[in-house]
Design brief:
The protein is mainly alpha-helical and about 375 residues long. It contains 18 helices and four strands. It has helices spanning about 5-15, 20-25, 30-45, 60-80, 85-105, 110-115, 135-145, 175-200, 205, 210-225, 240-250, 255-270, 275-280, 290-300, 310-315, 325-330, 335-350, 350-355, and strands at about 120-125, 130-135, 160, 165. A hairpin with a 2-residue loop joins strand 3 (about 160) and strand 4. Helix 12 (about 255-270) packs antiparallel against helix 13. Bound molecules: iron/sulfur cluster.
């Protein structure tokens, strides 16, 4: 996943006379495909972080080739799927894998880090073996808004001559903290690389990967519905009450207590991580990362059910009037989660069923009281 990896993989393909068609069907590359499938599966299915270890013997040429080409195989399958959910999960899995591996690699850390950020300084305190890393302020400022927590606010970091100190914290040493920052660049790099490939990929090329694509998207759909039916939601599916709470906070408008609890609990129902939910609050006029993390954690631990429509209307957190949104106008619309399910069903069902289902109540009920 390093930028240099692109040339390396091209060299490996050239030196071994491997074409993309070979990668898909040559019998002698079965191990590459198996490893690619496993790696893809790990990245996509593991919600709580990927396992960065590999069963491939990297001390041999064959092992290194297998690992490099398995990455390419997995990436091509993801691109050929043109599935945003799969893409997002794979990128998150690979970026997390990079975060873990970079944090362990003391020997190559300098070269790895400077592949992603514009510089790196090391400092060793007298009498201590621990290395403290400093990163350029420009890189830190660009990447830190994507990470929640007090540590990642510039005001809380020691700064000297345009360099930001990445000292150890939260059980992570300086290298691991710096790796967390690099993870954001890995994410950007993978996203750009995949989108570039997808733009160039024609139907004929994508069809070569139809079998592995079908297998992984099928598994993903099963997993998504098993985890939480709402986790595939895209922004267009959000009910107006959630959308307005997010946009208002984003614009620095104060949102009342009910609106904030609703935002956190609904975000949890969408399958967002605590970190993602905290990020929604970062534009609040009274934003405090520590307080937000504490309150969001409380909502997650207690598994709050989001407020229903009646409660949101009473608390002035329902932004629609009659005629504004046909779904909200339906008699059965009593809960924003019903709105979400109805929207999702419209998107995922066949067009013929879609027309019929537009104004019908979604299957499955929303139970529980808002908290
Ligand atoms: S009617 Fe219900 S779902 Fe629609 S915006 Fe109001 S509270 Fe949200």
């Amino acid at each position: 996943m390093l930028p240099q990896g692109r040339d390396h993989i091209r060299d490996v393909l050239g030196e071994n006379g491997i074409s993309v068609v070979d990668l898909i069907e040559a019998p002698w590359l079965e191990d590459v495909r198996n490893r690619g499938r496993l790696r893809l599966l790990e990245s996509v299915m593991h919600r709580d972080g990927v396992d960065a270890t590999t069963v491939v013997d990297l001390s041999t040429d064959l092992g290194r080739m297998t690992e490099a080409l398995s990455f390419l195989h997995a990436m091509l399958v993801v691109c050929a799927s043109f599935d945003e959910r799969l893409l997002a999960r794979w990128i998150e899995g690979e970026a997390s894998r990079a975060d873990q591996l970079f944090g362990m690699d003391s020997g190559n850390f300098n070269s790895i880090a400077t592949s992603y950020i514009s510089g790196l300084k090391e400092e060793r305190q007298s009498g201590s073996k621990e290395v403290i890393y400093w990163v350029p302020m420009s890189d830190f400022i660009e990447l830190c808004p994507k990470i929640s927590g007090n540590y990642w606010r510039l005001a809380n970091r020691p700064v000297r001559g345009g360099w930001v100190c990445m000292n150890s914290s939260s059980g992570e040493d300086s290298r691991q903290r710096t790796s967390r920052l690099l993870k954001e660049r890995v994410r950007e790099y993978l996203n750009d690389s995949c989108r570039e490939r997808m733009e160039r990929m024609d139907d004929e090329f994508a069809a070569l990967f139809s079998e592995p694509v079908e297998r992984i998207t099928g598994l993903l759909s099963e997993r998504v519905s098993a985890e939480m039916p709402m986790s595939a939601a895209v922004r267009e599916d959000w009910p107006p009450c959630f959308e307005s709470a997010v946009s208002e906070l984003n614009q620095g408008v104060n949102v009342n207590h009910v609106g904030r609890v609703f935002l956190a609990s609904f975000s949890r129902s969408l399958g967002h991580s605590q970190e993602q939910t905290c990020a929604f609050f970062s534009g609040a006029p009274d934003y405090n990362a520590e307080t937000t993390s504490y309150q969001v954690a409380h909502v997650y631990e207690r598994e709050y059910t989001p407020h229903g429509c009646a409660s949101l209307k009473t608390s002035a957190r329902c932004p629609v009037n009659a005629g504004d949104d046909t779904l909200c106008d339906q008699e059965w619309m009593s809960h924003p989660l019903k709105y979400l399910r109805a929207k999702q069903r419209r998107r995922f069902q066949a067009p013929s069923e879609d027309v019929v289902s537009q104004e019908s109540e979604p299957t499955g009920s929303v139970s529980g009281n808002s908290s």
